[in-house]
C-alpha cells in the first residue's frame, strides 16, 4: 500500500497541517497519551492501549521516534530492558491532549460510560486542575488506582500536590509524607472526578487520613469545577 502523502507535499505550509502529518494517524495520539506520565515498556503500552496490535504499535513507535517525539532508552541493570519515553519536545503534546479533551467533553457522542486507564483518569484531572482552596500549606494525597478494565491489573500510585498556587498529579511509586491516601478502581475514581458522583455513594473507594484534603483534591480537579458533597468519612 502506498504511503500517505503529507500535507506539505501539496504545498501546504500550515503548522497545524504538519502536526497532523506527525500525530494524525490512528492510535498515534493514544500512544503519546500513555507516555505523558513517564516512560513505559512496549508490553506496558500494548497492555494499556486496548485494541492496538503489536505490528501497529511497532509502526507507531517507529514513526514517533523518526519524528523525534519519542525516544527509546535502555534501563540500567540486568535484563536489558528498553523503555519508550517522550522527548522534551514530545512532552509538549500534553497541552494538545488537554485541549482535545476540553473540546471533546462537549460532544453529545462522547462514550461517557466507557472505562479509562489509571493514567488517563489522572491526565483528565491534570487537564482540569485548579489551585486549591483551604490551608496555605501544601497538601498531599497518595492516589492508588487499579485499572477496572482488567482483572489482573496491578495498582498504580500517583502523588497529588495541592496549594493556593496550583494542583499537580504525577506518577510516584513511593510517595513521601501524605495527608491522605485514596485507593480506588479507575472506574470509581472517574465517576467521582468526571461524573461528579459524591464519594459517599462510591463505597468501594477507600479513604484514609484527612477526608477534608481528599475533598479539596476532588474540588480542585473535578470536571465540573463545582464541589461535590462533603465526605462523612472520619479522618
Automatic annotation (TrEMBL):
Residues 14-112 form the HTH hxlR-type domain. The keyword DNA-binding applies. Keywords: DNA-binding, Transcription, Transcription regulation. It comes from the Bacteria. The keyword 4Fe-4S does not apply. Pfam families: HxlR. Gene3D superfamilies: Winged helix-like DNA-binding domain superfamily/Winged helix DNA-binding domain. This is Helix-turn-helix transcriptional regulator. It comes from Nocardioides malaquae. The lineage of its organism: Bacteria, Bacillati, Actinomycetota, Actinomycetes, Propionibacteriales.
Amino acid at each position: 500500500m502506498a504511503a500517505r502523502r503529507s500535507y506539505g507535499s501539496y504545498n501546504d505550509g500550515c503548522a497545524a497541517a504538519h502536526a497532523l502529518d506527525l500525530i494524525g494517524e490512528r492510535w498515534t495520539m493514544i500512544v503519546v497519551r500513555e507516555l505523558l506520565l513517564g516512560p513505559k515498556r512496549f508490553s506496558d503500552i500494548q497492555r494499556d492501549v486496548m485494541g492496538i496490535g503489536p505490528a501497529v504499535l511497532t509502526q507507531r513507535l517507529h514513526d514517533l521516534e523518526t519524528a523525534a517525539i519519542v525516544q527509546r532508552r535502555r534501563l540500567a541493570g540486568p535484563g536489558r530492558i528498553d523503555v519508550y519515553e517522550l522527548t522534551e519536545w514530545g512532552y509538549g503534546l500534553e497541552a494538545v491532549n488537554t485541549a482535545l479533551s476540553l473540546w471533546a467533553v462537549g460532544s453529545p457522542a462522547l462514550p461517557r460510560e466507557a472505562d479509562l486507564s489509571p493514567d488517563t483518569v489522572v491526565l483528565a484531572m491534570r487537564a482540569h486542575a485548579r489551585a486549591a482552596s483551604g490551608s496555605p500549606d501544601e497538601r498531599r494525597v497518595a492516589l492508588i488506582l487499579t485499572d477496572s478494565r482488567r482483572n489482573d491489573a496491578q495498582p498504580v500510585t500517583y502523588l497529588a500536590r495541592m496549594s493556593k498556587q496550583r494542583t499537580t498529579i504525577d506518577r510516584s511509586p513511593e510517595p513521601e509524607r501524605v495527608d491522605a491516601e485514596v485507593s480506588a478502581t479507575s472506574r470509581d475514581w472517574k465517576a467521582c472526578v468526571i461524573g461528579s458522583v459524591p464519594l459517599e455513594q462510591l463505597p468501594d473507594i477507600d479513604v484514609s487520613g484527612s477526608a477534608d484534603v481528599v475533598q479539596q483534591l476532588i474540588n480542585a480537579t473535578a470536571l465540573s469545577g463545582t464541589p461535590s458533597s462533603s465526605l462523612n468519612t472520619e479522618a
